[in-house]
Amino acid sequence: MTLRLRRIDGRWVQTLKTGGGGAGALSRRGEWETPARALRGQGRLDLARLAAAPLDALLARQKRPAVLRPVFRTRVRRAQWVIERAEASVEVALDVGEITGVRARDPSREPICEVELELKKGEPAALIELAFELLDLSGKRTPMLTPAARSKAERGYQLVADSPATSAKASSKVFTDGLTPNTTTSLALRKVVAHGIAILTENVELMLRYGDPECVHQARVALRRVRSAIRLFDREHCDVPPAFADELQWFARALGHARDWDVMTDETLPSLAGSIDAVRAHALIAKAEQRRAHARRRIRSAARSSRYTALILNGERWCMTSPPRAALLAAIAAPTLQRLATKLLQAARLFSALTRERRHRVRIFAKRLRYALDLFAVVLPKQATARYIGVLAELQDALGQLNDASVALSVLPQLSRSAQLKKSVRAWSEARGPERVRDAERNLLKLSTLRTPWK
To answer: Which of 81, 172, 179, 303 shows the greatest Cβ crowding within 10 Å of its Cβ?
Structure first.
């Protein structure tokens, strides 16, 4: 909850807001607003006027009496319009200003320059249509518009926090929230896409603000989960627009390029450094940092483009559409999971003799099975599913390490032309490979003999 005291044209207003659902930049929040008292020109909270709000219930749970005090201020100049569209009414607000901490020892501040659309009457689709109209203008007569998931309050609390901003986790729990065995695949897919857009939007916003590589990773995982669900459920005719799926792939590739250089710079090359001389290792890491910086500029450019904004808006618009009739999750779980498991085990036969490309394909199949298990977990027995996922996770770890070594060999020509260095890297890769191959084969054998949770 956020309790806000605001002065507007000389009068004071107090507002309580609660967090709510929504996808990406589209949010639904509870809001209670009443006049506030004024004393010597300053606003004063009057909690009795918020009796209809859930604030009292929150304060009652405190072990000690709660002391409410301000932690940040927002000062904005606002221009406001009301746009009428058929049966919808939308309030458009342009805010320019800044957020500042109130502690004297904390001079932190963050600029604000945003357009907020608030639905006053009608269907939420009207917000999307108006956002597209604004997007058509952005970059021509106005600055480029980028979706923002965090409210001013969330940014304010983060500004004055003692800990740095953290990425939004693309955990399986988030994506299965609200799913039941009787959820249809078409509705399940809309829920998954909505969760994915929300996590993607927040991580991209944090990446642009703070530059944390983990935000790139979590955004990429969110897109993988979304694309995996589309691949699973669109077989049931869940009507995902092909153009939207193509744009998801475009941004996933952009994130993947940036993520590859993060892994190369932070993990692979430091691991390799012990196998080559220090001077050469330092030079390699320096060149990799340059490549990473270039990849980051590319992903930041993509994230600030109208193409990315259109991707988010189109995803939100599709999630608002009525789901067509489709099969229940419980009805398709077993045959779908069996098909994916069979495909994985068949592709992994004679694993030690497979080429790098074939092993990479095994890795892809393992991921698809893992994401499918996460989505169908609501219809499966918990303990058996946890055991199966545990073995699958170990397999993924081994395959991931093999893939990292393979990527190191493939990108090395971009960092150095030294034949001696290439020989050293190959020796390093081959030294690590046999153990990882044995790990993969051991876990593949476990999977093939383990009782599957869908039978």
So the answer is: 303
Q: Amino acid identity of 1?
A: M
Q: Using only the alpha carbons of the chain, give its radius of gyration.
A: 26
Contacts of the segment 161-164: beta carbons below 8 A, 24+ positions apart: 164/210, 164/212
41 Rama sector, left if φ>0, alpha if ψ -120 to 50, beta otherwise: left
Contact call for residues 28 and 21 (beta carbons, < 8 A): yes
CA-CA distances (angstroms) from residue 160 to 70, 72, 109, 392? 11, 7, 9, 41
Q: Are strands 11-18 and 22-23 parallel, antiparallel or unpaired?
A: unpaired
CB atoms within 10 A of CB 417: 9
| Burial of 397 per CB tally in 10 Å (0-12, 13-18, 19+) | middle
d(CA 97, CA 103): 19
Would you state the structure tokens that stand for residue 101, as one six-digit string?
């901490």
Is there a contact between 218 and 168 (Cβ–Cβ < 8 Å)? yes
Query: What tens digit of pLDDT does each residue of 429-448 get?
Result: 777 778 889 999 999 999 99
- How far is the C-alpha of 421 from the C-alpha of 409, rounded, in Å? 10
Bin 314: left if φ > 0, else alpha if -120 < ψ < 50, else beta: alpha
**In which residue are the tokens 């004297």 written?**
104
What type of residue is 389?
A: I
| Amino acid occupying residue 424 | S
10 closest CA partner among 47, 49, 36, 45: 36
Q: Which amino acid, residue 9? A: D
Q: Helix or strand or coil: residue 111? A: strand
Cα 146 to Cα 33, 116, 142, 258, 310, distances in angstroms: 29, 12, 12, 20, 9
Give the pair of three-digit tokens for residue 89. 């009414």
Question: What's the rounded Cα separation, in Å, for the pair 344 and 363?
Answer: 9
Predicted structure pTM score = 0.87
How far apart are the C-alpha atoms of 124 and 26, rounded to whole Å? Answer: 9
